[in-house]
Specification:
This protein is α+β, with helices and mostly antiparallel strands and 115 residues long. It is built from 2 helices and 7 strands.
């Protein structure tokens, strides 16, 4: 028996500061927590904006996962809507544990899928 899960990976360009990201997410009605290197959207999934620095260079990323597609897509759509309203350029790719494409969410980010 194989465990099923759904993952999201994404990015913002340019990356907002942590303070700006937290402000926008909270203004959009989302609950967030932060530590030195990340901002987490509190909810049904593990939705994290990771801020890497130092030796990592500009390797910041967005990642999320859940046991099923429904909660992850619901949260990803909420986060994407908040980012879009704030004018933050971003893209999220969602795949299942079989590497099957589930969704592409974005704001002002062209995709080969849409060409």
């Amino acid at each position: 028996m194989t465990d099923f899960f759904v993952t999201l990976s994404g990015e913002c360009s340019p990356w907002p500061s942590k303070a700006d990201l937290v402000r926008h997410l909270r203004a959009g009605g989302l609950r967030v927590s932060e530590d030195e290197y990340s901002v987490r959207v509190e909810g049904e999934t593990r939705f994290i904006f990771r801020y890497c620095c130092g030796d990592c260079g500009d390797a910041s990323m967005v990642e999320a996962d859940a046991g099923s597609a429904e909660p992850l897509l619901r949260e990803a759509k909420s986060v994407s809507s908040v980012l879009a309203l704030a004018g933050i350029r971003h893209q999220f790719d969602v795949y299942d544990s079989n590497h099957d494409f589930i969704a592409y969410l974005h704001h002002d980010w062209p995709s080969e899928r849409e060409a």
